[in-house]
Automatic annotation (TrEMBL):
<feature type="domain" description="Nudix hydrolase">
    <location>
        <begin position="10"/>
        <end position="168"/>
    </location>
</feature>
<protein>
    <recommendedName>
        <fullName>Nudix hydrolase domain-containing protein</fullName>
    </recommendedName>
</protein>
<dbReference type="GO" id="GO:0004081">
    <property type="term" value="F:bis(5'-nucleosyl)-tetraphosphatase (asymmetrical) activity"/>
</dbReference>
<keyword id="KW-0378">Hydrolase</keyword>
<dbReference type="InterPro" id="IPR051325">
    <property type="entry name" value="Nudix_hydrolase_domain"/>
</dbReference>
<dbReference type="GO" id="GO:0006754">
    <property type="term" value="P:ATP biosynthetic process"/>
</dbReference>
<dbReference type="Pfam" id="PF00293">
    <property type="entry name" value="NUDIX"/>
</dbReference>
<dbReference type="InterPro" id="IPR000086">
    <property type="entry name" value="NUDIX_hydrolase_dom"/>
</dbReference>
<dbReference type="InterPro" id="IPR015797">
    <property type="entry name" value="NUDIX_hydrolase-like_dom_sf"/>
</dbReference>
<dbReference type="InterPro" id="IPR020084">
    <property type="entry name" value="NUDIX_hydrolase_CS"/>
</dbReference>
<dbReference type="GO" id="GO:0006167">
    <property type="term" value="P:AMP biosynthetic process"/>
</dbReference>
């Protein structure tokens, strides 16, 4: 087992979503106009914010779409918690909204740990006005799953999309 320690000044927690519209079989991506990179929406978790809240907030801020977590039947190492017995094998618990995966990125001396959630939204709804950071000039794009796989700029985003899709019925 490999073990490392990162102080709070050496890592950042981010959260994002793989947001789909189950009715139209489309996925939600963003394109950063500055670099033309296409990616899944994600961003830093705020202090005192849950991982789930951060993922949904960042998705809204970057896309203008209010997503909700998509319960999936996924294997997980998470425990069932009280009042259920801790002796139950929690790796197959039924529908859950736990993170579907994590990814890690190292830049300089900072480790970024990203928690990814499956989410759903209505691709036919209008894009809503939202607060934007000065450096976040994104174009929101809904596209078919196959087109999204082609359009994503990074291999790890394609893998994350595949993870979310493999558990959807």
């Amino acid at each position: 087992m490999s073990r490392t320690v990162h102080t709070a000044a050496q890592f950042v927690i981010s959260c994002g979503t793989v947001t789909v519209d189950p009715r139209t079989s489309k996925a939600l991506l963003i394109r950063w106009r500055k670099t033309n990179e296409c990616m899944l929406p994600k961003g830093r978790k705020n202090i005192d914010e849950t991982l789930e809240e951060a993922a949904l907030r960042e998705t809204f801020e970057e896309t203008g779409y209010k997503a909700s977590l998509l319960p999936l039947l996924i294997p997980t190492q998470a425990t069932l918690g009280s009042p259920r017995s801790s002796s139950v094998d929690a790796r197959h618990t039924g529908l859950v909204t736990e993170p579907i995966c994590t990814s890690q990125r190292q830049k300089d001396k900072t480790l970024k740990i990203i928690f990814w959630f499956a989410a759903k939204a209505d691709s036919t709804a209008p894009e809503l006005s939202r607060p934007r950071q000065p450096n976040e000039d994104f174009e929101t794009m809904w596209m078919t799953i196959d087109k999204a796989k082609e359009k994503l700029s990074f291999d790890d985003d394609r893998k994350i999309l595949d993870v979310a899709l493999q558990y959807q019925s």
